[in-house]
Amino acid sequence: MSEDGPPLPAAAFYEPLDQDRFTSTTATAGPWSPGFQHAGPVSALVGRAFERHDPSPGTRVARVTVEILGPVPVAPLRAVVRTVRPGRRVSLLEGELLGEDGPIVRATAWRIAAAPGRLESTDHSPPPPPLPTTSRPIDRWPGMHADGYLAAMEWRPVEGSFNRPGPGAVWARARVPLVAGEADSPLVRALTLADSASGIGSQLDLAKWLIINTDLTVALHRDPVGEWIFMRARINADPGGSALAEARLADSSGGFGRALQTLLVDGLPAG
C-alpha cells in the first residue's frame, strides 16, 4: 500500500472483531460527513463476504449489486451471506451488512464458472491513458470532509476533478487494505473505487446539489490486475427524472468491467 499523499486516517478501512464483525475506522468516512461511510469500502466489505462464502474452486464473482438502505454510520458492522440459488456453474448469493439497528446494506452477487482458458479475449473499450507519474490531492468543495476515504485513496486525475463539471477520468488505488492484516483481492480493489463514479464523473456542482446514490452495480468480465485501477465516469441527469452515473473500469492491460449508480438529485438544504 502507498505512503504517498496526505496523512493516513487509519491503517485500514476496517478492523476485524471476529469472523464476520468489523470495526469501521475513520478511513471509511465519506466526503459528506465524518460520521457516515463512503459506499466504496462498504461495497468492498460485502464483496469480500461474497468471495469467502462457501468458496467453489474454478468460479468467480462476476457481478455485485449493492442496495444502500440508508446512511452507513462509522460504527461496527456484521456481514452475513447466504446462497439463494446454488449451482455448480452459476450461483446467486445474497448478503447484508448489519448495524446496531438491523440491515443497512443489502446486496446480491452472481458467482459463475470461469470461462475456459482457450476463449479468445474481446474488449471493445479504448485503451486507458498512461498512469500519471504524480498524485494530486482531491479538489475540495465547501463543507467537504477530505480526511476519511478520500485521504485513504491515492488519486492521479487524468481529466476533470471532483469539484469541476465532468465527465472525468482518474487512476486510483487504496493506500490502506480493506481489512487490517489482509491483502485485498481484485474484486475488493474494484469495489473500493467503483462507488466514486458519481464524484469523478459528476457534471453537477456538488456545492449546489445533493447527490445520493441508492445503489451500485459492478460487473466484471475479468478480474483487474495490479493495484492501480483506471475509471472513466460520467453522469446523465434530467429535470423531473433522476441521474445515472456510469463508469468504465480498466487496468494497465485494458478494460475489465463497468459500474452503474442510480442517483437522487435534490437541492441542498438551506443554511
Structure, explained:
By secondary structure, the protein is mainly β. The protein has a single domain (14-114, 132-267), classed as Acyl-CoA thioesterase, double hotdog domain (Porin, Beta Barrel). The protein has helices at 39-52, 149-152, 186-194, 197-200; strands spanning 14-16, 21-24, 59-68, 77-85, 90-99, 102-113, 153-161, 164-174, 209-213, 215-220, 229-237, 243-251, 254-267. Strands 1, 2, 3, 4, 5, 6, 7, 8, 9, 10, 11, 12 and 13 form a 13-stranded antiparallel beta sheet that branches. Strand 1 (14-16) and strand 2 (21-24) form a beta hairpin. Helix 1 runs antiparallel to helix 3.
Which helices and strands appear, and what pairs or packs with what?
Blueprint lengths: L13 E3 L4 E4 L14 H14 L6 E10 L8 E9 L4 E10 L2 E12 L35 H4 E9 L2 E11 L11 H9 L2 H4 L8 E5 L1 E6 L8 E9 L5 E9 L2 E14 L4
Antiparallel strand pairs: 1-2, 2-4, 3-6, 3-10, 4-5, 5-6, 7-8, 8-11, 9-13, 10-13, 11-12, 12-13
Number of helices: 4
Uncertain segments are none
CATH homologous superfamily title: Acyl-CoA thioesterase, double hotdog domain
The CATH topology turns out to be Porin
Q: Helical residue percent?
A: 10-25%
